[in-house]
Design goal:
Blueprint lengths: L1 H14 L8 E9 L5 E9 L16 E8 L4 H15 L4 E4 L3 H12 L5 E4 L1 H13 L3 H17 L21 H17 L8 H8 L6 H24 L5 H8 L7 H18 L13 H14 L13 H4 L6 H10 L2 H11 L8
Parallel strand pairs: 1-4, 4-5
Antiparallel strand pairs: 1-2, 2-3
């Protein structure tokens, strides 16, 4: 009963009438699970509803616009999905997302035919792409990540577990390089101070984690690189994209003394943001980060628990349930106008037979 209440709320939020306006911003991404299906998720917020001070969007700030599961996706299919979604909100002012091949191709085609709409590349994904380019073929970095993986195994059943490195993601691993680098720096500082107590034997730490000392110089260089990327990401995330934004970013990111690579990346990010800012009109602010949709997808998979590994089910509607504001009136209206039958019909039409049923 509780699950169906949740799904009825999700259905109501997804299907209720949206305001027709020309200042909508669509935040777009794919979520995938087991099987051949992937789901195009479109969240929306109007420019007039953007936070006045910082653009850190919460789940309550965004409206679920579309959940579109398909067994095959390419640029043409994404384009058709976007065209269909126009019926809900009118043509958006901005679409922001990553550069997944099908998403990128579909959005660019959509924008070519609608001059009012601009396509923005999420700053977090841009930063991750730069880190991947700079590190993925670096032998020292590869060896460092391998050693960190081995160290995690060595300490997981010991009293040194508090010093274990963060988990390295198998997918999108360059989205959290900063956590791994800062773990290395913090632990190296701890080892250098030589401070131990009864709980943490430094002899045991040297045996399992002392290898970090070999990466002292590289750690400084990697940290400079991460700081430059993180500074740009945080700045764009907070204030968005507007005309001549690159000039302000140049002031916000300090140059790195004696680090040519970090300064080259700094210049690249400033140029990227300046190029993105050309999409904004005078006096207009656009979103520069699609991080809210990454967070929402993560929450959805947590809500699904084990079902997140079993392909899409009717629980997909729960994605819409925790977005936008949920008041007592919203819940009451959802349970009044959406019978369970509507949820079952939506599932049959959009997903069909689940992997579990198969």
């Amino acid at each position: 009963a509780g699950r169906f209440w949740l799904l009825r709320l999700g259905y109501y939020k997804l299907e209720r009438a949206k305001e027709q306006a020309s200042d909508w911003i669509w935040i777009v991404d794919h979520t995938v699970q087991l099987g051949s299906e992937k789901c195009l998720v479109i969240l929306g917020i109007r420019q007039s509803s953007l936070p006045a001070v910082e653009l850190h969007l919460s789940h309550e700030d965004v409206e679920p616009i579309a959940l579109l599961p398909v067994t095959e996706s390419n640029g043409a299919i994404v384009y058709e999905q976007l065209v269909k979604t126009v019926e809900k909100t009118d043509v958006p002012r901005q679409i922001i997302g990553d550069h997944g091949p099908d998403i990128k191709a579909g959005i660019e085609r959509f924008c070519r035919q609608r001059q009012n709409t601009c396509y923005s590349y999420d700053i977090k994904h841009k930063g991750a792409a730069i880190l991947k380019r700079e590190l993925q073929d670096n032998e020292e970095w590869i060896k460092f990540t391998q050693n960190a993986t081995q160290a995690a195994r060595k300490v997981q059943q010991t009293d040194l577990i508090a010093f274990a490195p963060p988990n390295q993601r198998s997918k999108a691993r360059y989205m959290n390089v900063d956590k791994l680098v800062r773990w290395g720096q913090d632990l190296l500082n701890y080892l250098d101070r030589g401070i131990g107590n009864g709980d943490h034997d430094l002899t045991g730490m040297d045996e399992k984690l002392g290898w970090l000392r070999e990466y002292r110089d590289q750690m400084i260089s990697w940290n400079n690189l991460v700081n430059v990327v993180d500074s740009a990401v945080e700045f764009v995330r907070s204030v968005g994209i507007y005309r001549h934004r690159g000039v302000d970013l140049e002031t916000a990111i300090e140059e790195c003394v004696n680090d040519e690579r970090a300064n080259r990346v700094r210049d690249e990010l400033i140029s990227f943001v300046e190029q993105q800012s050309l999409n904004a009109r005078e006096g207009e602010v656009l979103l520069g980060s699609s991080e809210v949709i990454e967070s929402a997808i993560g929450k959805f998979k947590t809500l699904e628990q084990d079902q997140a590994k079993s392909g899409f089910t009717s629980m997909l509607l729960s994605f819409a349930a925790f977005l936008s504001k949920t008041t007592q009136d919203v819940i009451q209206m959802a349970l009044q106008v959406v019978p369970t039958k509507k949820v079952l019909e939506w599932f049959k039409e959009n997903i069909g037979q689940s992997v579990q049923a198969q």
